[in-house]
Amino acid sequence: MSQLETAMAIMMKTFDTYAGKEGKKDTLTKGEVKTLLEKELPALFKAAKNPAEMDKIIKDLDFNGDAEVDFTEFVVLVAAMTCAAHDRPKK
Ligand SMILES: [Ca+2]
């Protein structure tokens, strides 16, 4: 596999690993989102100083308003964070 294909496979595997912990297997519950952010996106997790802020991040992620984060919604988050990192001025 190419590097990009590997990166895509890792994204799919990461989502599936956390989504399979509780509730529906193909969506992330609020608890699963929290665990995923804490383990996989610690910088974003630390940026949320209190539970209310974390709730807002999760609410913003849930575009279709079904109280779960599906794979599309997860990919949008990763893409947004990738863009933010890419746009950051190089040292
Ligand atoms: Ca959703």
Automatic annotation (TrEMBL):
Residues 49-84 form the EF-hand domain. The keyword Cell cycle does not apply. It comes from the Eukaryota. Keywords: Calcium, Metal-binding, Repeat. SMART domains: EFh, S_100. GO terms for biological process: endothelial cell migration. GO terms for cellular component: cytoplasm; extracellular exosome. InterPro entries: EF-hand-dom_pair, EF_hand_dom, S-100_dom, S100/CaBP7/8-like_CS, S100_Ca-bd_sub. GO terms for molecular function: calcium ion binding; calcium-dependent protein binding; transition metal ion binding. This is Protein S100-P-like.
